[in-house]
Amino acid sequence: MLRSLWLLLVYLTLVGLGIAAPFVLTLGYVWVDTFQPQNVAYVILNQVPVAMVMGGAAVIGYFILDRRSPPRFTLASALQLLLALWVTLTMVWAEAPVPGWEKWNWAFKSIMFSAFIPLVIRSRVQIEAFAQTYVFSLAANFVPFGAKTLISGGGYGQNLGLLTGNSGLAEGGLLSTLCLMAVPLALFLGRHGQLLPKTKPVRLAYFGIAGLAVVTALGTFERSALIGLVILAMYMLSRSRHKLRLGLLLGVFALALVYVMSSRWTERISTIGDYAEESSALVRILVWRWTFNYAVSHPLGGGFAAYLIDSVELPDGTVEFGRAFHSIYFELLGEQGWIGLGLFCLLSGSTLLGLRRMARRARKVPEMAWCADMSDALQSALMVFLTAGAFVGIAFQPMFWYFIAMSISLREYVHRVEQLQAQGDGPVPWRERHPAGGTAWQRDRLQPAARPRPP
Amino acid sequence: VLDLTGILFSTLMMLFVVIRAVRFDATRPWFEVPARPPAPETVAPTPGPQDVPPGDAIIPWRERRG
Description:
heterodimer, A: two-stranded antiparallel ribbon, B: mainly alpha, 2 helices
């Protein structure tokens, strides 16, 4: 009961703060979507459409109170909208319309809300608050999970987190991928965060959060988690300025992992090599083959939940029906066809390339070092998703879309700063010549910080 | 107990961060333009003999000798 009342208080606080600063409503939606208080509370919040109320308030709040300094309409935004349109269109010829519309309901919202976020999250403070909200919301799941793993050793299929069942964050594949994606973001916040005091304990706390996220990922005994962890380590190493130090640290961590993890974990992970005999891996390969053949004969895809019509024959002659895709790429191929897969790959690729280009520019300016480091963190997280996700069907889970939104917000921030800097080189802009003029937001928000004045 | 710890840690930190964000959002500029290095002609000249306080001035050997 106390837990439910506390969560209600948190929810109402976010709504209250959102009236004063509308961007908080968007953060509130991120919290509701990630923490899922409706599934944790026992009373009140579990009977109210909390996500709909917060999401609706965020959109209304933006259009009425906060429509300032809108971002450009970028390629990423166009691809998001095209994909949202395409997933709606494929429902016209959906193989399984009833469960398909159910999935469309949340997948469509994930894409559209991620397209909306860059409108609201514009300044450095807002971008950091978004990242912090995401990490701390997810921490509600991986802090207890990680602690329980340290005590019990974890286990495959064991639900040690906050949520029950076998879907969403209660599912090991999704939880482990999201935890690994949160690691570079937590390390970035520990280094460049402004919203929490910059003290050694705070920095150590972020290291602790990142550590618990890794322990949680390993504690799920998911094989995709190990693949994600290797990719994360390699990508972070390639982006690091202290390669030798980080390399040594990762080497020590890998050795410790071998000794510390239980034999159950080693047994489970060693089945990666037995994909031809291990039933779970074999079924995946057979489902992927079925999906490829299906996409050849149905290039426009079969709409959401198309996996329900698949059938695979195992070597012992038994036939299994309706097996999930277990891969973001085959999920997109089977459900959204070649066009959907192409849009997704184009969006992921253009986001990664855009982040790299932006980081290269930002790194040259000491004041923009945080943008370059955040870009590296987002790239690492996206690489984890794109590799570990090859073995888990989580393409439309909102967290990937949050990272895409965060990337757009960051790139737009750098673009605005560059634009302001370019203006500073030319004639003095009107709003600086007339400081009392201009709209309120121009006066309040677009004032350059620490611009050198001519003597 | 661990679940409750997780919930409390997560929500308290999130609220703390959001409240600070609201305060900073109202007081700080949204887009911070990095300071450019000053142009060469505006660089202050290095201190010459005329800028040195009288007590610290180094008197040339010839002048000291008269």
